[in-house]
Amino acid sequence: MILAASILSADFGCLAQEVQRAERGGAGVIHVDVMDGHFVPNITVGPLVVEAVRRATGLPIDVHLMIEQADRYIEAFANAGASWISVHVEAVTHLQRTVARLRELGVRPGVVLNPATPLTALEEILPELDYTLLMTVNPGFAGQSFMADVMPKLRRIAEVKRRQGLDMLIEVDGGVSVKTAPTVATNGGEVLVAGSAVFCADDPATAVGAIRDAAEGARL
Ligand code: DX5
Ligand code: ZN
Asked: Which residue from 7, 11, 49, 217 has the highest number of Cβ atoms inside 10 Å of its Cβ?
């Protein structure tokens, strides 16, 4: 199980230290939420912040693009140091071309599904993906409630992965905490994104460890 710490809830005034706190606690990935005010109502950060995170840690950086016209920006994020980049199936028209381009850029490609988007939307592209990201909130903001209704979809993608022998990670994003991580882990989540549960805690390092323990304990 990999814990992806989402910096959306971090203190940007001391971003490098926040990232290092998460790393110290056992985060395996740093998750960066990019929002454009069009695909989602909120606006967050661009490649400059990815560069800053890159300087702060050796961990892989997982860039979650919640933007329109992602093709115009993926090269900039790759150059900024993104290790993984995911695009929303709801926002990208020529998904296969985008995924192929990400791979060409030396980035691990992923595709994201909103809670209401069915798995069939990515059936044909699955073999080309390094990861699939299932949203357990509607994207746009940190601190929303976990949607347990997505769990049947998570179980189905885990089953598809197993049946087809796919070399693809299954990531889950939204409302993940000590309380919900066991549910995510038992239903097949392998990369757990956590924002507020990590960075709104008194000690982000301890919080990361607690979420990981909760998820791993549930798997035994
Ligand atoms: C939501 C973002 C998430 C967000 C998660 O649109 O994609 O990555 O940071 O935040 P929490 O963990 O607070 O739900
Ligand atoms: Zn995210």
From this structure: 7
